[in-house]
Amino acid sequence: MTNALPDDSRDRSAESLAAAAAWPNGTLEVICGPMFAGKTSLLIARLAAAKARGQSVAAFKHASDTRYHATHLATHDGQQIAAMAVADPIELFARLGKAQVVAIDEAHFFGAWLWDIIVPLLRDRRTLIVAGVERDHVGRPFEPFPRLLVEADTVTKLGGPCKKCGKPAIHSQRMSEDASRVVVGGSELYQARCRECFGKP
Ligand SMILES: [Zn+2]
After folding, report:
1. What's the 18 CA to ligand 1 centre distance in angstroms?
2. What confidence score (pLDDT) does residue 2 get?
3. Which residues of the chain, if any, have pLDDT below 50?
4. How far apart are the CA of 57 and the centre of ligand 1, in A?
5. How far apart are the first and last CA of the chain?
């Protein structure tokens, strides 16, 4: 009788982790930083470059995010590219077709669950570009970014100026008392802040 597992004493959890990490042809780029740092602009530029190379692209945003445009990724200064608004990672997975390059904006709206579709897409040799805010409104790690940042092939951290003092910002300060973790808003609700100014009025 043959045994598929040659040595039962091996650390199977380490083995399954190694298997999960084996995605020889897919790549994951993470673009993160506080709000108003230019993440969506960079995502749009990446997609434009991929299209210029002749690659098929699919861009996604969360259905709750209709701040600038419902069917496009759009920036404060008017750049835009067509995108599908989806409610959750399952709908995203169902709608991406054969696109070689898959972009996901504002990934923090999807939560930790997003990670579950990242590994299958990498194994399917897709190029993934995931953008969003890696710290929540009180500065805690914001899922799914802790995992994404560990597993990424490339990380680009952007930071605009602190709204209060002009130094490089890393935080997105919510200017209301709402304690919910996910609250969609723009400059009427959030300010980019440096470490020193974060938490001040
Ligand atoms: Zn500051």
Report:
1. 42
2. 45
3. 1-3, 5-6, 8-9
4. 37
5. 71
Residue 57, helix vs strand vs coil: strand
Q: How far is the CA of 110 from the centre of ligand 1 (A)?
A: 29
For 27, the token pair is: 């790549």
Domain span holding position 94: 23-158
Is residue 27, in this structure, part of any structural domain at all? yes
Q: How far apart are CA 81 and CA 100, in angstroms?
A: 16
CATH of the domain at 88: 3.40.50.300
Catalytic residue flag (residue 91): no
> Which residues are found with C-beta within 5 Å of the ion, ligand 1?
162, 164-165, 167, 194, 197
Q: What's the structural domain count of the chain?
A: 1
- CB neighbours (10 Å) of residue 141? 12
**Cβ 122 vs Cβ 101: under 8 Å:** no
Please report whether residue 2 resides in a domain.
no
Q: Indicate which residue of 106, 143, 151, 188 is catalytic.
A: 106
pLDDT digits (tens, 9 = 90+) for 69-112: 678 888 777 778 899 999 999 999 999 999 999 999 999 999 99
Q: What pLDDT is recorded for position 1?
A: 44
pLDDT digits (tens, 9 = 90+) for 128-142: 999 999 999 999 999
Flag whether the pTM goes above 0.70.
Answer: yes
Is there a domain that residue 135 lies in? yes
